[in-house]
Amino acid sequence: MRTIAVINQKGGVGKTTTTVNLAAALALAGKRVCVIDMDPQAHASTHLGVEPDGTIPSLYDVLVSNKPLAEVRRSVSENLSLIPSDINLAAAEVELAGIVGREVILREAMAVDSHEADYVLLDCGPSLGVLTLNALAAADEVFIPLQPHFLALHGLSKLLETTALVARRINPKLTVSGVVVCLYDAATKLAQEVVMDLTAFLTRSRGANVPWANCKVFDTKIRRNIKLAECPSFGKSVFGYASKSSGAADYAALANEVMGGTAPVVLGPLKIRVPVETPSRQTTVEPVVA
Q1: Residue 218: pLDDT band by 50, 70, 90 thresholds?
Q2: Are the CB atoms for 1 and 119 separated by under 8 Å?
C-alpha cells in the first residue's frame, strides 16, 4: 500500500483537483483507492459527491472521538472510497491542542484498520497545522502540486523544511517523491523557466540526507482545462464528467506515471495509454478499444 499526502500550504494550486482525479484514475485502472479528506472545507468530499452536512460521520470523529475508520468510510464508486471531512474538523485543531501524541492519531487509526487498499491519498488543507502533521505522520510519500509561478518556489522551501522536520522527529520513512505541475501553459516562457529551476534544484539534492533527495518533477503536466473547474459542482471526477477532455487525458497520464507505466486507465469502453517518457506531454494520447 502506498500512502500519499498531497500537500501545499498555498491555496489554489490544485491539491484537491489532483487528489480526487488521480484517485479516480487509479481506481479506473483497477487499483483499490481510499481518499482521506483532511481539509475542513471538505472540497474533496464534495468533489466526490458526498455533501458535508455535519450529520454524517467524518474524519473529525476519528481524530477527536476515536471512531474507527471503518465506521466513517464511504464507498463512492468502484474501487474508490472516501473518509469524508466537514466543517467540524476545523475545531479539531483546538480540541487536540492539549492531547499528547496528537500528531499520530490518524496513523494509529490506520494501523488498526482492516481495509485493504493499494493507494491512500490524503488531501491536505492549505496550512501546516495539526491536521497536516497527522497526514505527514501517516504517509509514506508526499506529492506537491505546484503552480508554475516563481512565488510558488518561495513557498516550496518552507514546505520542504516541514517535511524534513516531520521525518526527523515523527516519521523517519517520509519522503517527498514527486511534484505535480498544475495549471500549466506550455506556451508561456515563465512556466518553462519555473519547471527548469525546480528540476535543477531537485537534481542538486540528489544524494543529500533530505526527504526530497529522490524527488522528481512528474513528466505529466496538468494543463489548464475548464472541465477540471466544472466537475466538482457536479460531484464527479473529470472522468465521470468529461472523459474526453484534456484534463482527463492529463490525469490518466499522471496515474500511469505514478503506477510506473504498467497499467492503462480505462475510460468506459476505451483504454487511454499515454507514454510516460514523453517529455512535453503535448496530448500524446492513443485510444485503444478495450
Answers
A1: very high
A2: yes
User: Which domains, and CATH codes, for the chain?
Assistant: 2-289 (3.40.50.300)
SS3 98: coil
| Mean pLDDT in residue range 121-143 | 91
Give which of 117, 136, 141, 138 is closest to 125, Cα–Cα. Answer: 136
Beta strands across the sheet bearing 286-289: 265-267, 270-273, 286-289
Quick one: which of 242, 224, 187, 265 has its CA closest to 14? Answer: 224
- Report pTM: 0.86
pLDDT at 277: 38
Task: Please give the full DSSP string across 261-279, using - where no structure is assigned.
Answer: S-SPEEETTEEEE--TT-S
Strand partners, 195: none
- Give the mean model confidence (pLDDT) for residues 104-115: 92
Planar angle of CA 16, 21, 23, nearest 5 degrees: 95
